[in-house]
Amino acid sequence: GREQVEGALAVAKKAHEEYVVKTPALRTGSFADCLEEIAEAMIFLVWMETGSVPPPSSIPLVEIDEYLGGLIDFTGEVGRYAVLNATKRDVQRVEDCFAVTL
Predict the structure, then answer these.
(1) Other CB atoms closer than 10 Å to residue 90's CB: what's the count?
(2) With bands split at pLDDT 50, 70 and 90, how would you rate the model's confidence at 69?
(3) Which residues does 52 contact at the CB level (< 8 Å), separation at least 6?
(4) Taking 90 as the threshold, does the pLDDT of residue 3 lie above it?
């Protein structure tokens, strides 16, 4: 839930301050991949809470390419969530998944 996403973001912020700020080349690769995963989690979380996809500016540290990667992965999460709810015969939640607008 929210606590896990915010915890991951806190760890990323600390790593950014301690390492990436001093050595910007560390931004690419694994660190950027982590931020993409954080973006995906934050997008899914906000969508679950509000029904809306948050803008890139609402996710700290995340640059546009990481946001876009998270947004693309978010669509897969919505698909899995739809299937999970279809197995529960929760028609409304499945319809909510199909109604996502980006």
Answers:
(1) 13
(2) very high
(3) 46
(4) yes
Given a contact cutoff of 8 angstroms between Cβ atoms, the answer to whether 27 and 66 are in contact is: no
Q: Tokens 């993409």 appear where?
A: 36
- Distance separating alpha carbons of residues 20 and 43, to the nearest angstrom: 24
d(CA 48, CA 2): 11
* Amino acid, single-letter form, for residue 68: L
Q: Is the CB of residue 39 less than 8 Å from the CB of residue 67?
A: yes
> What confidence tens digit (pLDDT) does each residue in 6-38 have?
999 999 999 999 999 999 999 999 999 999 999
Token pair for residue 6?
């915010």
> Is there a contact between 78 and 51 (Cβ–Cβ < 8 Å)?
no
Sign, Cα dihedral of 21, 27, 31, 34: positive
